[in-house]
UniProtKB/TrEMBL annotation:
Keyword vocabulary terms for this entry: Cell outer membrane, Membrane, Signal
Main location: membrane
Residue ranges of every copy of the Solute-binding protein family 3/N-terminal domain listed in the record: 48-272
Membrane topology: Peripheral membrane protein
Localization annotation: Cell outer membrane
Originating species: Bacteroides oleiciplenus YIT 12058
Signal peptide start and end residues: 1-24
GO CC list: cell outer membrane
UniProt protein name: Solute-binding protein family 3/N-terminal domain-containing protein
Record CDD domains: MLTF-like, PBP2_YfhD_N
Length: 463
């Protein structure tokens, strides 16, 4: 009897254990349902993980922008929730944050690999990425069309995947490619693309999406020669978010032909970001533009020479009141929509030249107050830089200048050098930077161009 009772007790314990396992499994499954799509809708917030870059996410003139950011916004809107962005330092950081529950979905092109499929569900639009040779399409040298033509050529790249690919390609071709590893921390891969466009170096390497974006700044670039195998990539979620993955797949499929998606694609990868410029309206009559009287009327309110205000307008819009930039800035003074509203431009009046100038004056005055600690003789440069980039990026550059022993109250050869470095990961991820990636070369040139043109106006046009 004792033996029978003992066997019965063991059987009862096993049954209880199995029952407990089933209950735990069911609870886990219930947890998945709660922690997936429905939880996001209940919270009213989609937390997106991404990286700072020219193609994914950045802040421009106080407005969040970037192709992946805009797609994330559209996706969040389709779910009826708000968007919150969390930025990681690299792809490994994205995956780590996702698995730790710090975000719901990665909105970045994560490489599709067997290893990552164990912990991720890939979703959304599957894109094909590959590395390309960036070269000039104009000039005396005929563009390269085959990898064998790289033998004997000088190619400049940063350490990492581009350098590694070139080394492997060089071995495949039997040697002969002149590979120059650019180890200077102040030079980014996009800086090298700029140098190619300017004719300073002959060739560099970039991912095809980054290269394509840069052709909108430099139309003289040729990016047709691929040097790597295609790599599939897409967004990703955790394994416990199958419903979110499913709805992301469906949304991407339906969204591909939407006006919003098309507009975002054009904004970053097709629309030229260079403003065409024309010379002075009439040197003989002493006129810079048709809007000289407006500049004269309002420049005194901020104690500016009207010719300086004219130089700013020329750089922004080429005196075209109907101009709309790639980023959505409008009118003679190219104010972003949110800034235009904040500065009092009535909706629908963005193309009114007087409303545009009045609002720009208000914005310049407010910006100048933000730099009250900067000496008067230097303040103008900081105001102009902020007009182009937004105050946050200039403040980041000042913080970097101070950290690296430069004068944060002097623009030329000091703070301007650090606004340039805001496109370099080592610097925009520095703890003193609060606003992430920025294509600083635009602001660097912006200030110099305006001040240079102002000097020309002063020589040729009477005050």
């Amino acid at each position: 009897m004792r033996a029978t009772a003992k066997i019965f007790l063991i059987a009862l314990l096993c049954l209880c254990w199995l029952s407990g396992c089933r209950n735990k499994q069911r609870a886990s499954m219930d947890g998945e349902a709660v922690g997936d799509l429905q939880q996001i809708k209940d919270s009213g917030e989609l937390v997106v993980l991404t990286l700072y870059s020219s193609t994914s996410y950045f802040n421009y003139r106080g407005q969040d922008m970037g192709f992946q950011y805009e797609l994330s916004e559209q996706f969040a809107k389709s779910l009826g929730v708000k968007l919150r962005v969390v930025v990681a330092r690299n792809v490994q950081g994205l995956i780590k944050k996702l698995l730790a529950g710090e975000g719901d979905i990665i909105a970045y092109n994560v490489p599709i690999t067997k290893e990552l499929k164990d912990s991720l569900i890939y979703c959304g639009e599957e894109v094909i990425t590959h590395q390309v040779i960036v070269q000039r399409s104009s000039g005396k040298t005929k563009p390269l069309t085959d990898v064998t033509e790289l033998i004997g050529k000088d190619i400049y790249v940063k350490p990492g995947k581009y350098y590694d690919r070139l080394v492997n390609l060089d071995k495949e071709l039997g040697g002969g490619i002149h590979i120059h590893k650019v180890t200077n921390d102040s030079v980014s891969s996009e800086d090298l693309i700029t140098q190619v466009a300017q004719g300073k170096i002959p060739y560099t390497v970039a991912d095809n999406d980054v290269a394509k974006l840069n052709t909108t700044y430099y139309p003289n670039l040729n990016i047709k020669l691929s040097i790597s195998f295609d790599q599939r990539a897409s967004w990703a979620v955790r394994k416990d978010s199958p419903e979110l993955a499913e709805v992301a797949n469906k949304w991407h499929e339906e969204n591909m032909t939407s006006p919003a998606y098309t507009a975002s694609m054009k904004r970053y990868f097709e629309i030229s970001k260079a403003t065409p410029h024309t010379p002075i309206l009439s040197l003989r009559e002493g006129k810079i533009s048709h809007f000289d009287e407006l500049f004269k009327k309002y420049a005194s309110e901020i104690d500016w020479d009207w010719r300086l205000l004219a130089s700013l307008a020329y750089t922004e819009s080429n005196f075209d009141t109907t101009a709309v930039s790639w980023a959505g800035a409008r009118g003679l003074m190219q104010l972003m929509p949110a800034t235009a509203r904040a500065m009092g431009i009535p909706e629908g009046k963005e193309q009114n030249p007087e409303e545009s100038v009045k609002a720009a004056i208000k914005y310049i005055n407010a910006t100048a107050q933000s730099f009250s600690s900067v000496p008067q003789e230097e303040r103008l440069n900081f105001v102009l830089a902020s007009y182009n980039s937004g105050i946050g990026h200039v403040q980041d550059a000042m913080a970097l200048a101070e950290k690296y022993g430069k004068n944060k109250y002097v623009w030329k050869d000091n703070v301007e050098n650090f606004i340039l470095l805001k496109s370099n990961e080592e610097y925009f991820t520095d703890p003193v930077c609060k606003n992430g990636y920025f294509r600083g070369i635009e602001t660097y040139n912006f200030v110099r161009d305006i001040m240079g043109r102002y000097e020309t106006y002063k020589k040729k046009i009477k005050k």
